[in-house]
Amino acid sequence: MHRTRGKVIGVVVGIAATGLLAACGNNDSTATSTPTLTHTTTAASPTAAPTSTGATGQPQASEPAQTPAETATPERPQPVPTNAVPTEDGSKLTDKDKKFLDALKAAGVTTASPDIALSIGAYVCQGIAANASDQDLMTFVSAMAGSDPSFDPAKMPVEKAGRIYIDTAKATYCQ
Questions:
Q1: Which candidate among 37, 99, 124, 169 keeps its CA 20 to 30 Å from the CA of 29?
Q2: What is the mean pLDDT of residues 111-135?
Q3: 93 CB contacts (<8 Å, ≥6 apart)?
Q4: Which sign, positive or negative, has the C-alpha torsion 127, 129, 131, 135?
């Protein structure tokens, strides 16, 4: 009898804990609004300024709240020229880097930045130096190529982009 009572109490405590945890939230993880870059301000309302009582018991007017009369204009990023030579870290591209990037472009692969393509090319070269199998290289290079923000699967399959990266790196970058 004593064992059964302990099991029943354990089950009741477990169910109660589950119910309490479930009641804490509705498990809704979706955003309900989209943030914007614009800032809006409202004009001061024409209501009376708040008052406070001074030492004499007479009401004294407080300073009215100050609000900016102008609305801020949203900042817009300037487009990056496609022939930008420096990489994101500010270093200049070498002739080997330029040759690799030009060969990728000629094969139909464009990247969001030169750093992405150069990182993938360096990975291919390191994999070759470490005697990685073509299948291993293909798996990771395809994943990296597909994660590039400018990759468009409608233009070519990710496996084809991965193959282009590997072949181009072998021909122009890993020497």
A1: 37
A2: 94
A3: 85, 86, 87, 101, 114
A4: positive
